[in-house]
Amino acid sequence: MKSLVVVAGVTVAAFLTIAMLGTAGWSLPPIAAQQHGFRGTGMDQIQTKREAAADQAANQAPAAADPASADGDKAGTTYHNVQVLKDLSTEQFNRVMTSITEWVAPEQGCTYCHNTENMASDDLYQKKVARRMLQMTQAINGEWKEKHVHEAGVTCFTCHRGQPVPKNVWFENPGLTAKGLTEPRNNGQNMASPEVGLASLPYDTLTEFLGKKGLDDNAIRVNATTALPEGKGKSIQDAEKTYGLMMHMSQSLGVNCTYCHNTRAMSQWPQSTPQRVNAWHGIRMVRALNGDYLEPLKGTFPENRLGPNGDVPKIGCGTCHNGQPKPLNGAHVIESYPELAKATASAADAKPQPASPPADAPK
Ligand code: HEC
Ligand code: HEC
Ligand code: HEC
Ligand code: HEC
């Protein structure tokens, strides 16, 4: 009798194990774990080897175009309406045009931005947006080199990946919009939104923290900075908003909280990883890009590109990162395109100002 029970037990266990491995939500070993903080603090990033390989494969940077000669007439003299790249040689300018076509509109080709009857014409909104994008890319690689993108830099491909509209953009989220006597009230939360990992957290947290330029530098902080309360402090709702943003950042980078925090003391900079400082600047950079470059394009975009509130599409951490801690596997994409790195006179009037990290941030 006893052996019969054992056999039955083993059979059930074997079936359950097989069923478990076959259903969603379970990852098959082998595991690729990476240590991030001090030993024993559990600050590890855990992925299966399969996931890690798929991630790498999905984030390949394209090969750079062959370099072009700097000799000959400048693009500004050869052509009629070149405003940003006028100091390049004509050959270098044409190389950039070929590359941006490959990065942004490989299927549509030159006609995505140009009226081929008259290349100098600014009739198409796509060309006007693209000119601003050239300036934005120069500002990212110039103004934000030290603070965020370093030697890796970005090209149009970092965000666009062969698509005119990048995959990871966001809009203001108006939530429930039904009007009338029974106007719903949900305090801006408890609605599935991918921005906050479908959790019951405030769903429009990006508008608050990544959409506003000139936000107070302490807006995201919620932990007390003194042992005893000295004032009203932040509410639970504020903490939920901060958590919503943290979900966005973690998902965008494909990491968990311990990539940046020692979770026994979230707020403390000396216990955090150096990556948290990168992230701190990243938040300021994204605000500046949205405020200085995307927001002013509101009148340029056609209506069908705007969000439910009539707002412009905006950049988040995932626009560049696409699920990786370093976009495009950390490739140094800007090396072969120095013209997309220097800030030109026309970009200077909309310079995003890098801020400093908190005084107690790790150096
Ligand atoms: C993603 C948008 C985009 C695509 C695609 C694109 N261009 Fe352009 N093109 C621009 C922008 C923006 C300018 C203006 C640059 C400036 O002001 O510095 C421009 C300017 C030009 C000019 C100068 C015209 C003049 O007289 O002022 C030429 C020539 C040109 N592009 C050729 C091409 C060719 C050829 C292709 C396809 C291989 C192409 N472009 C694809 C955005 C684009
Ligand atoms: C930091 C990310 C980022 C970079 C870098 C970037 N873009 Fe964009 N781009 C965006 C976002 C966000 C939009 C808005 C998406 C939309 O149009 O709905 C956009 C929109 C555009 C559009 C309009 C597409 C449409 O039909 O609405 C063009 C054209 C464009 N970008 C060209 C470029 C070019 C050319 C470069 C490189 C010089 C570039 N972008 C670099 C984020 C980026
Ligand atoms: C990529 C780095 C990064 C990741 C991943 C990350 N955080 Fe943060 N976190 C930051 C930065 C940077 C700040 C400070 C933002 C500021 O002050 O502008 C912060 C602030 C916080 C704060 C407020 C601390 C204070 O001073 O009051 C909390 C709480 C927090 N994070 C929780 C989390 C949780 C929970 C997760 C995982 C879901 C997470 N973080 C993931 C970088 C990160
Ligand atoms: C314009 C593109 C872009 C955007 C937007 C962006 N990043 Fe980055 N980020 C980069 C690049 C490029 C690097 C790689 C720098 C390097 O190789 O040193 C990077 C590196 C980082 C790192 C360091 C990773 C490591 O392992 O060293 C962190 C952390 C980070 N970003 C967080 C963020 C957060 C959080 C946001 C959103 C608030 C954000 N980034 C938005 C381009 C971007």
From TrEMBL:
<keyword id="KW-0674">Reaction center</keyword>
<feature type="compositionally biased region" description="Low complexity">
    <location>
        <begin position="342"/>
        <end position="353"/>
    </location>
</feature>
<dbReference type="InterPro" id="IPR036280">
    <property type="entry name" value="Multihaem_cyt_sf"/>
</dbReference>
<dbReference type="InterPro" id="IPR023119">
    <property type="entry name" value="Multihaem_cyt_PRC_cyt_su-like"/>
</dbReference>
<dbReference type="GO" id="GO:0019684">
    <property type="term" value="P:photosynthesis, light reaction"/>
</dbReference>
<feature type="binding site" description="covalent">
    <location>
        <position position="257"/>
    </location>
    <ligand>
        <name>heme 3</name>
    </ligand>
</feature>
<feature type="binding site" description="axial binding residue">
    <location>
        <position position="246"/>
    </location>
    <ligand>
        <name>heme 3</name>
    </ligand>
</feature>
<keyword id="KW-0349">Heme</keyword>
<feature type="binding site" description="covalent">
    <location>
        <position position="110"/>
    </location>
    <ligand>
        <name>heme 1</name>
    </ligand>
</feature>
<keyword id="KW-0249">Electron transport</keyword>
<comment type="function">
    <text>The reaction center of purple bacteria contains a tightly bound cytochrome molecule which re-reduces the photo oxidized primary electron donor.</text>
</comment>
<keyword id="KW-0479">Metal-binding</keyword>
<keyword id="KW-0813">Transport</keyword>
<feature type="compositionally biased region" description="Pro residues">
    <location>
        <begin position="354"/>
        <end position="363"/>
    </location>
</feature>
<feature type="binding site" description="axial binding residue">
    <location>
        <position position="321"/>
    </location>
    <ligand>
        <name>heme 4</name>
    </ligand>
</feature>
<feature type="region of interest" description="Disordered">
    <location>
        <begin position="342"/>
        <end position="363"/>
    </location>
</feature>
<dbReference type="GO" id="GO:0005506">
    <property type="term" value="F:iron ion binding"/>
</dbReference>
<feature type="binding site" description="covalent">
    <location>
        <position position="159"/>
    </location>
    <ligand>
        <name>heme 2</name>
    </ligand>
</feature>
<feature type="binding site" description="covalent">
    <location>
        <position position="317"/>
    </location>
    <ligand>
        <name>heme 4</name>
    </ligand>
</feature>
<feature type="binding site" description="covalent">
    <location>
        <position position="156"/>
    </location>
    <ligand>
        <name>heme 2</name>
    </ligand>
</feature>
<dbReference type="GO" id="GO:0030077">
    <property type="term" value="C:plasma membrane light-harvesting complex"/>
</dbReference>
<feature type="binding site" description="axial binding residue">
    <location>
        <position position="160"/>
    </location>
    <ligand>
        <name>heme 2</name>
    </ligand>
</feature>
<feature type="region of interest" description="Disordered">
    <location>
        <begin position="42"/>
        <end position="75"/>
    </location>
</feature>
<feature type="binding site" description="covalent">
    <location>
        <position position="320"/>
    </location>
    <ligand>
        <name>heme 4</name>
    </ligand>
</feature>
<feature type="binding site" description="axial binding residue">
    <location>
        <position position="133"/>
    </location>
    <ligand>
        <name>heme 2</name>
    </ligand>
</feature>
<feature type="compositionally biased region" description="Low complexity">
    <location>
        <begin position="54"/>
        <end position="70"/>
    </location>
</feature>
<feature type="binding site" description="axial binding residue">
    <location>
        <position position="261"/>
    </location>
    <ligand>
        <name>heme 3</name>
    </ligand>
</feature>
<keyword id="KW-0408">Iron</keyword>
<keyword id="KW-0602">Photosynthesis</keyword>
<dbReference type="GO" id="GO:0009055">
    <property type="term" value="F:electron transfer activity"/>
</dbReference>
<feature type="binding site" description="covalent">
    <location>
        <position position="260"/>
    </location>
    <ligand>
        <name>heme 3</name>
    </ligand>
</feature>
<protein>
    <recommendedName>
        <fullName>Photosynthetic reaction center cytochrome c subunit</fullName>
    </recommendedName>
</protein>
<feature type="binding site" description="axial binding residue">
    <location>
        <position position="97"/>
    </location>
    <ligand>
        <name>heme 1</name>
    </ligand>
</feature>
<feature type="binding site" description="covalent">
    <location>
        <position position="113"/>
    </location>
    <ligand>
        <name>heme 1</name>
    </ligand>
</feature>
<dbReference type="GO" id="GO:0020037">
    <property type="term" value="F:heme binding"/>
</dbReference>
<dbReference type="InterPro" id="IPR003158">
    <property type="entry name" value="Photosyn_RC_cyt_c-su"/>
</dbReference>
<feature type="binding site" description="axial binding residue">
    <location>
        <position position="148"/>
    </location>
    <ligand>
        <name>heme 4</name>
    </ligand>
</feature>
<feature type="binding site" description="axial binding residue">
    <location>
        <position position="114"/>
    </location>
    <ligand>
        <name>heme 1</name>
    </ligand>
</feature>
<dbReference type="Pfam" id="PF02276">
    <property type="entry name" value="CytoC_RC"/>
</dbReference>
